Amino acid sequence: MPAQRWRELVATAAAEFADAGYERASLNRVIRSCGMSKSSFYHYFDSKQQLFEAVVAHVAATVAADLEVPEPADFRPDFWGLAERFLQRLVFAAERDPLFVDFGRICYLPDVPAGQDGVSGATAAIDDWLRRTLAVGRSAGAVRCDIPPGLQAHTAIAVLRAFDEWALHNRSALGPGELPRLVQAQFEALKRLLEPVQQGSA
Fold it and tell me: At what angle do helices 117-139 and 98-107 cross, to 10 degrees?
């Protein structure tokens, strides 16, 4: 498929899946919006699931490349400073590119088909990165070590997901400047949860 047509198809299909969910997403709407014929579409894809898998794989790779995700070891010298700057990059990406937001919404769809490895693989990779990053923070003294690492990671991931899912599903209702403030609140909540407890503090 020509590159420009592929980018248009990815953006259109990602928006359709994010808005309608997997089961209610319409291939006819996607094909019509892209100005494709059905025969042209089915030359490349056999089914909605095959399109979904291709879109998820492409968008996940694009988002990861655009964000320039730091390696966990990069956080060692300035853990919380780099964490805050990385979250700010996420906000910038979300405000600049609707595809980034649509991918996030797709990751939280409740009706992804069983055995679909694209979404589960993407979320598993994110969770693994967070666990390894927290381990670096613990070894550097920036993250508390008085609770088990597994419980700490589980709690931190739950907090991040709660903020992310709410923000993604309510993105259109947020006013100017609300998303950056919400992400800052997310960062501060995570920092309060994870920073070492100071001796003598209440």
Answer: 100
Among 70, 95, 65, smallest CA distance to 82 is for 70
Two tokens at 24?
């209610």
pLDDT over 60 (residue 199): no
Is 167:179 a contact under the CB 8 Å cutoff?
yes
Rounded CA-CA distance 44/49 in Å is 13
| Interval 7-18 mean pLDDT | 92
State the architecture of 57-194 in CATH terms. Answer: Orthogonal Bundle (1.10)
H/E run at residue 157: helix 149-169
Residues contacting 144, CB < 8 A, separation 6+:
138, 152, 194, 195, 196, 197
Question: For residue range 165-190, what is the model confidence (pLDDT) as tens digits?
Answer: 888 888 778 787 788 888 889 899 99
The two three-digit tokens of residue 27, written as one number: 């291939």
158 token code pair:
């739950």
How far, in Å, CA of 104 to CA of 94, rounded?
A: 9
Q: Give the E-state strand segments of the chain in sequence order.
A: none
Predicted TM-score (pTM) of this structure: 0.80
